[in-house]
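Subject: design request, 176 residues
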């Protein structure tokens, strides 16, 4: 879905779109509840039940960085949730924690993610995230340190996801 190189893992800057806890992306970013609709349509109404107009706000901003509370993506086994977020031009997600299936789907599809305390990040402020170092800075002067992702995970994300990485590295060589 995503092409390699479209997200700067060292300096992803965008408007923060803050969500709460337990956001189930099966409900908010899936055609499961919109059968027969295109991915583009689902992206245009993503999160509508949670935050009306959010998809339009993200589109108007040219994309953004999602900031969420505990268990973002809980119960989400569909890769489509990551694809919808990429269609929305989400540059990455910073959350207190992730549902494990969504966490792996994000990595497998080249969507950068970090876990950290997000309580100081305000909705609508500009944030800059260095996913490779786990650093988050906000326009209001907040500096947060998350645990950086391992080099191997960063390589998968940088390649555009697991399949793209394996096409270029069938031997799983991360040293290239």
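Subject: RE: design request

Done. Sequence follows.
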């Amino acid at each position: 879905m995503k092409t390699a190189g479209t997200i700067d893992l060292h300096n992803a800057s965008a408007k923060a779109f803050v969500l709460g806890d337990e956001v189930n992306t099966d409900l908010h970013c899936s055609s499961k509840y919109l059968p027969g609709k295109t991915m583009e349509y689902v992206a245009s109404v993503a999160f509508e039940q949670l935050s009306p107009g959010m998809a339009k706000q993200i589109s108007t901003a040219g994309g953004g960085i999602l900031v969420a509370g505990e268990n973002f993506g809980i119960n989400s086994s569909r890769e489509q949730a990551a694809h919808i977020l990429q269609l929305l031009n989400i540059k990455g997600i910073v959350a207190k924690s992730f549902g494990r299936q969504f966490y792996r789907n994000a990595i497998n599809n080249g969507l950068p993610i970090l876990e950290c305390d997000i309580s100081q990040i305000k909705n609508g402020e500009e944030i800059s995230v260095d996913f490779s170092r786990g650093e988050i800075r906000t326009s209001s002067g907040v500096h947060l340190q998350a645990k950086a992702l391992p080099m191997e995970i960063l390589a998968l994300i940088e390649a555009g996801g697991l399949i793209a990485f394996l096409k270029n590295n069938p031997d799983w060589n991360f040293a290239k």
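The beta strands are 12-18, 64-68, 90-95, 113-115, 126-130, 135-138, 143-145.
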